[in-house]
Amino acid sequence: MGDGIIKYLKDIFDNVLSVLFSEEEQCPLCEKVVEKTSLCLACRNKIDSINEVFVISGEEYSFKGYSVGVYSNAMVGMIKRFKYSRDFQCGRALGELLKEKILHINIESPILTFVPMSSKSYKKRGYNQSEYLAKVVGRELNIPVVNTLYKCKETLDQIGLNGSERWSNVDDSFKLNEGIKIKNRKIIIIDDVITTGATAYNCGKELMKNGAKEINILTVAKSNV
Ligand SMILES: [Zn+2]
């Protein structure tokens, strides 16, 4: 009887350990077992990849932009689950995609930063999805992640605004955090989705004004609407 209980408890303990320390992960889209927290090859191939570099220009600067893929199909589902349903398995898989992309871009000793949220939006969501992605990449590739910027004015949601409204909505809406040293640094700004590029451009502009050497903008997805 006593032995039976001990065996029963040991089985439970082993099960808990196997969950905690399992090497096996599931593809967040089809649940097929994969080695790392990433998409399986079949789901990876459903992403419409973007290989070309694009340019995000404003009045003062031009920055290079890179995206993993088009904001469509599998990408939309994963980003929405991560952003609005606290699905961090999708978040980690998206971080893995960014990691692959950074390895291709090959920028020498960069630092990573991310588009900040207003404190009101942060409180509502509980996390900044862009910061989360930057931290996944930073940890995997051993690149420092620096919280460079804060949002200094409340802006409207960019969704629902047209192109020129989006630019004026976020104009001068970011400021450098106190004590942040970025002089002569090459910076990669991480965000989830890029559309007009107005938000990321204004982040880059503030970093350039404070002495950054080079700005690159890297997002998981690129949307045309
Ligand atoms: Zn899959």
UniProtKB/TrEMBL annotation:
InterPro entries: ComF/GntX_DNA_util-trans, PRTase-like. This is ComF family protein.
